[in-house]
Amino acid sequence: MGIMDRVKFDGLKSRDWLVYKYPNDKIVMGSQLIVNEGQVAVFVKGGQIYDLFYPGTYRLSTDNLPILSNVLNLFYGNKTPFSSEIYFINLATKLDMYWGTPDPIQIIDPKYFVKLRIRSYGQLALRLEDPLLFFKEIIVSLHKDDLVVYDKVQDYFKGMLITNIKTTLANKIIKEKISALDITAEIPSITDDLKVRIAEEFELYGFQLINFHIQSINFPDEDFDQINALLKDIAQMEMLGEHRYEKKRSLDIYEKAASNREGTDTFKTHLNKSLLNHSHTKQCPSCNESIPSTSKFCNLCGAKIEAKIICPTCNYENEEDSKFCSSCGTHLAKQVCECGNELHPVDRFCNNCGKEV
């Protein structure tokens, strides 16, 4: 290429550039170097950084590049051409840098014990504070390109950025037991923690983190549906009480089982018997806890329970050998239909064959 007497780079309209390598490597002493506002020029020869030039106009000479006088033979005075590289670096703040987790962070909600698939995205702003440090640390992997845009630098830091975001989010949720329903209120706190960690990483390469924002921490609707179902159950238990809630849950289970089968008479018979067996409870005389009425021993403390017959009409506890209720006179003896189905004392028709009792 030809010898250049004027070296300048006016930037790009998009302002998305970070490093621009001047295309001509034939520079002469006395050439004019113009560095615009928001730029710095790095003068390199033979892989060695000679000097940095901040905004202003310079005349390249041994006065501002004194080390060159030791390596150049000035056969033609100050017009001797020499091979060198000039890099322009953008010092302006880059505001519109967006980030996002490419795959979900899978953790267990510490309050509802539901597996969550967390995603997050946001925005950050960077400014190159130490161009010399940046040039030494990163330019080796980028110098083959004449133009380096911020997207390429962002790709370079992507692994570090996403790892820190995932780790901080997971630790915050698990250690501080933050539920999915409370995570939105914690975004400012999580943002502050992340900004400190990420800023330290960027400083190692000469960047200053100006701003860091989390725009959203979100979960799939399926994860929220599971939590909403749990909240509904909790609300029902609080309204009904634990004992009545357990009965309702038993009914729900049986209804679901019935809907998944053909609904034969045999299944209905077993359902009725099961509901009958669980429809009454009694109190353990030892620990005073509620236990099924048919229990011979307490399933909580192990105490032996005297056998009693519960009247299906008035719930009075009768002795084991009673044939009639001592309170209301209801017949307590077991009845069996001609079809072999055991009948409840208050049954008027057999629930297996339909015959009138």
Would you write up a description of this structure?
The protein has 357 residues and is of the alpha+beta class. It has three domains: 4-90, no CATH class; 94-223, 2-Layer Sandwich (Tetrahydropterin Synthase, Chain A), CATH 3.30.479; 311-357, no CATH class. It has six helices and 19 strands. Helix 2 packs across helix 3 and helix 4 (221-240) packs across helix 5. Keywords: Hydrolase, Protease. It comes from Ureibacillus acetophenoni. This is Membrane protease subunit (Stomatin/prohibitin family).
- How would you write the strand order of the largest sheet? 5-4-8-2-12
Largest sheet, if any?
Answer: 5 strands, antiparallel
CATH class of the largest domain: Alpha Beta
Oligomerization state of this entry? single chain
Could you report the average pLDDT, rounded to the nearest whole number?
76
Helical proportion? Answer: 25-40%
Uncertain runs: 66-78, 271-279
Cα distance spanning the termini: 113 Å
CATH topology of the largest domain: Tetrahydropterin Synthase, Chain A
Q: What overall form do the CA principal axes indicate?
A: rod-shaped
Secondary-structure-based class equals alpha+beta
Keywords: Hydrolase, Protease
Domain DZANK-type: 311-354
InterPro entries: DZR, SPFH_YdjI
Protein name: Membrane protease subunit (Stomatin/prohibitin family)
